[in-house]
Specification:
alpha/beta, Rossmann fold, binds NADP nicotinamide-adenine-dinucleotide phosphate
Amino acid sequence: MRTTTRLAAIAWTLCAGLGAAGPLPAETIAVIGTGNVGMALGTEFADQGHTIVYGSRNPEGLKASDLVTKTGRGATAALPRDAAELASIIVLAVPGTVVGEVVSGLGRLDGKIVIDVTNPLTRSATLEFELDTESSNAELIQSLAPRARIVKAFNTIPWPQMIDPARAGGPVSVPLAGDDAEAKRVVAELVEGMGLEAIDIGELKYARWTELGAVILLNNQLSNRPNFDLHLRKSQERRP
Ligand SMILES: NC(=O)c1ccc[n+]([C@@H]2O[C@H](COP(=O)([O-])OP(=O)(O)OC[C@H]3O[C@@H](n4cnc5c(N)ncnc54)[C@H](OP(=O)(O)O)[C@@H]3O)[C@@H](O)[C@H]2O)c1
């Protein structure tokens, strides 16, 4: 959300709750993966004043260097392990089925905030999408990096809405799951700086709930059934 939607975003942000402790200081954020989500989050976080280092398998290739140029504001690209070492916040924007392998290659993540945006999707024998894990990718990452501060976020909205939430025709909520309250607050600041609303859904063990959304969406997209957009919107109604 680089220009026109900024004002609408500020209005939504003023109405939002979680993460009300004020703007984050500028951080170095490693965005691992230079695909659609890496691009959307990297450019958005750079617009919030953070320094982005993309972690790519090919940091000198055309895709990474184009993204560095598009992001501006001092962005760079490096191999994933080098990018992670430089950063206090790490975003995992890689295919869900390789996240264990990717995290294992990042070195020590102790104390770092790790934002898991992945959906662990695989295809069944009948080519339907299904979850590739008994628990969740977020818990897999936590088991590989026990001292990292994992927050599940952003996996329930399509990447174009990360850049332009107004496409959804109203506020879009981003559920956050994690065991570290301060890490969730930091991620909530990033979410709300994009004009999205953060909603705390509790501990990391609830991340699986959010990972199911993409299964419903993609299975309908690839069938003759109707397509739909998938996002959550905070209800104004109070329920018992
Ligand atoms: N697309 C969406 O709208 C959306 C929304 C919410 C969440 N998600 C989730 O976010 C994650 C990223 O989605 P995306 O749409 O950005 O995917 P994508 O466009 O395919 O990009 C994934 C990136 O991951 C990196 N990567 C690292 N190891 C890889 C490997 N073994 N194989 C392929 N790529 C590898 C690649 O960057 P390098 O080549 O630079 O290494 C690649 O560009 C997925 O887990 C997805 O489920 C997607």
